[in-house]
Amino acid sequence: MAKPASSPSSTPKVTQRAADRIFAGSARGAGITILVTLAAVTIFLLAEGAPALTADPEDIRVLSLRQFQSAQILGRRLLLLVLIKSSRTTPFGKLHWRHAPIRL
Asked: Cα 46 vs. chain centroid, distance in angstroms?
C-alpha cells in the first residue's frame, strides 16, 4: 500500500506577520465601510424617490424641452468653469497643460 504524500498534521503552519494582519483588517474594514455606505445611499434614494413612483401622474411636474436645454447649457458652462479654474496656470495666467504631444 502507498502512503499518503503528507498528512494535514505534518504540514508546517504559515505564520503571518503583524503588519499583514493589520493591513488585511484595515482593507476588510474599508470594504465593509464602502458597502455599508452604498447600502445607506440606496435606502435613502429609494425612500426619497418612493413618493414619485406612487404619485398621480398629473401631480408630477416635468421640465419642458426649453427648461431642460437651459439646465444642460448651464451645467456645461459650470463644468467648463471648474475645469479652467482647477487647471494649472503659470504666473502669467496662461493655461499650462502637462502632456506630451500626440504622435501618429
From this structure: 19
How far, in whole angstroms, is CA 51 from its chain's centroid?
27
* CA distance linking residue 78 with residue 29, whole number of Å: 37
| Domain segments of the chain as ranges | 19-86
What pLDDT score does 95 carry? 55
Residue 57 CA to its chain's centroid (Å): 33
Nearest CA among 13, 77, 104 for reference residue 85? 77
| pLDDT at residue number 37 | 98
CA atoms in the 13 A half-sphere facing the CB of 73: 6
Digit-coded pLDDT (tens) for 27-69: 999 999 999 999 999 999 999 988 888 888 787 777 788 888 8
